[in-house]
Amino acid sequence: MEKLVITVTCDTTLTYPHNPNGPKPDNPSGVADEYVRAINSGASICHVHGSYISDIEIQPDGRLLQIPIMEGWAEISERIRGTGKAVLQFGLASIRLEQKIELWQKLKPDMSSINFDSHDEYFQPVPEHPPAGYCYSIHPISELREYARLAKENDVKLEIECFSTGAFWAIEKVRAGEFWVGDRREDELGLLPDPLWATLFFGWPGQSWTPPSAKGIQFMVDHLPAEVNWSMSCMAPAVYWSTIAHGIAIGGHVRVGMEDCPYIEPGVYAKSNAELVERAARIAREVGREVASPEEARRITGLPA
Fold first, then answer.
1. What is the pLDDT of residue 38?
2. pLDDT at site 94
3. Are 80 and 48 in contact (CB under 8 A)?
4. In degrees, to the nearest 5, what angle opens at C-alpha 170 toward C-alphas 212 and 247?
5. Which stretches of the chain score pLDDT less than 70?
6. What is the full DSSP assignment across 199-230?
């Protein structure tokens, strides 16, 4: 079986703000420390939120999103690069296009996240607390075309976030390269170089929810487009580790970290993101999979060595 690529995502602010051990985006040094520890524990891809603030209400452009702060992103990116070959993957998939382009051009990540579904997330993983946050944005095919074109121009590989199989439909539309501007057809091929790297999301609350179960995983995997390597993310504490274990056992790659689930066991917060990475690596070894190094992760994801 192919070696396991472990992605780590350390920011817990939008999802589990009551986590006492979670690094905060206004402390980029602390966030960077978390990534370095996670890399040393077996993570090969760092899904980075950097520093940011959030819209407090839906804006005139119809979106409620996060706004990156360049200095914090730069500090975290520099620390991750200082560890060696770990893959730098920029997150906050739906930040506005002009802000994403600025990050790409100034900081030159290896990968960057794009949500190929409509982005509708309602963060309430801890029932005794009010919703921790909300994220809303629609992504028409015309916008995905622009994201893909600009990523290619800036030598950034897309990490395609897939909350439902509707994202697979969008992948095939962009791959086909047949676009309509009004009543005029425009052809633009080669926007999504193979192999694609997709993250499948299970149990994430919101209107693009897919169940965090063996059947939910199998449904998504059975309908993957061709030439797609997949990782998975889960936000469902009650079944989190069993869902992650299932993905590992059937050959998928995994994303772990305090953004997705900060619990090392039911009701017990992990002391660090590294502890969560170590548990994923231990599960992999128990089912006979080796953990990929950053160099091996680059090959598996289709990045240059």
1. 97
2. 82
3. yes
4. 25
5. 125, 132-133
6. EEEES-SSTT----SHHHHHHHHHTPPTTEEE
What six digits make up the tokens of 152? 């290619």
pLDDT on residue 224: 97
Q: How far apart are CA 25 and CA 27, in angstroms?
A: 5
Residues listed for the chain:
305
CA–CA separation, 44 vs 202, rounded Å?
Answer: 21
pLDDT in tens, 45-88: 999 998 888 888 888 888 888 888 899 999 999 999 999 999 99
The rounded distance, in Å, linking the Cα atoms of 96 and 66 is 8
Q: How many CB atoms lie within 10 A of CB 5?
A: 26
CA distances from 209 to 57, 101, 206, 219 (A): 22, 28, 6, 13
Angle at 34 between CA 31 and CA 39, to 5 degrees: 130
Q: Which residues face 45 on adjacent strands?
A: 7, 87
C-alpha 142/C-alpha 125 separation (Å) is 33
Give the Cα separation of 205 and 197 in Å (integer).
23
Sign (positive/negative) of CA torsion 280, 286, 288, 290? positive
pLDDT for 133 equals 66
Q: Which pLDDT value is given to residue 10? A: 95
Give the predicted TM-score (pTM) of the model: 0.94
Task: Look at residues 228, 210, 22, 8 and name the one whose alpha carbon lies nearest to residue 120.
Answer: 210
b (16+ CB within 10 A) / e for 110-124: bbbbbbbbbbbbebe
Terminal-to-terminal C-alpha distance of the chain: 21
Which tokens hold the place of 236? 């469902």
Residue 56 DSSP one-character state? S
